Amino acid sequence: MKTIIAAYSQNQSGIVFLLLLIYLLFTNFWPVPALYLTWLIFDWDTPEKGGRSSSWVRNWLIWNHFRDYFPIQLVKTHNLLPSHNYIVGVHPHGILCVGAFCNFVTRSTGFCEKFPGIRPFLATLAGNFRLPVFREYLMSGGLCPVTRRAIGHLISRNGTGNAVAIVVGGAAESLSCKPGLTTIILNKRKGFVRMALQHGAHLVPAFSFGENDLFQQVVFEEGTCMKSFQNRFQKLLGFAPCFFYGRGFTSVHSQGFLPFPRPITTVIGEPVTVPKIEQPTCGTVDAYHAMYVKALLKLFNDHKVQYGLSETAELQIL
């Protein structure tokens, strides 16, 4: 119980939900929050143990409509063998990670048919799993916290044939997301490579072409007050406030917060074979990180023209 309280003390949105449940304890509905809080205590560590996936949530028919709105498609370039585990690096983050969600959480784009024997998972902010009720929905879709413990469990204690997708650039990358700009944050993101080495999980690059075209965002220059505010907010809550707009509810020509209906194509690249080294040196991590970057650049350059970019378009890696 102390662990739960300590976790909520670091998560402001979680505190709001927890206080709401406590408030309901003093109303006529008290049995519901009482039972749920009891469940929460006993189920607290489940997200860190890989969560739990429900096929019926992943197969909801609404996801087909979600896919077709943009539309979104998944492209396979190489096989993933069920005898191995994988860490899939997804780029770019965009505003809402629409491509990653649709391809690795829902079954609407045919991931399991294209990669038979592979179970996909998507890692997201650990703070999301401290939100009562919402955490149950996240886990039912195969999402897990982007923590060493949760990812390590899936790629070492859950058998083989597991593919954990990580949006490597994270919240910081969303701040540089805008149409016509292909910038990702990767140079100093090496933790996922170290984990792959420690567990012998192969690294797979994936790129979602069109992810940055779903919204228009106001990008603030470094050194401005608004940029400083975004950076401080991100350090405090783990995500960055983006100032963006999309289309309205009535027309694609109106402004609102719906994403623009623009195609997203997520291309899964060639796996980088990774040996199991329980205590890899920094040099080894750097070497396999460089191999991953090379594979990602090849994936981007091989498919950029086919999926809407110019021949001269470059992938900027920060």
Automatic annotation (TrEMBL):
The keyword Transferase applies. It is a multi-pass membrane protein. It is found in: Endoplasmic reticulum membrane. It comes from the Eukaryota. The chain crosses the membrane at residues 15-42. It is an enzyme of class 2 (transferase). GO terms for biological process: lipid metabolic process. CDD domains: LPLAT_MGAT-like. Keywords: Acyltransferase, Endoplasmic reticulum, Lipid biosynthesis, Lipid metabolism, Membrane, Transferase, Transmembrane, Transmembrane helix. PANTHER family: DIACYLGLYCEROL O-ACYLTRANSFERASE, DIACYLGLYCEROL O-ACYLTRANSFERASE 2-LIKE PROTEIN 6. This is Acyltransferase. It comes from Eublepharis macularius. The gene is LOC129341379.
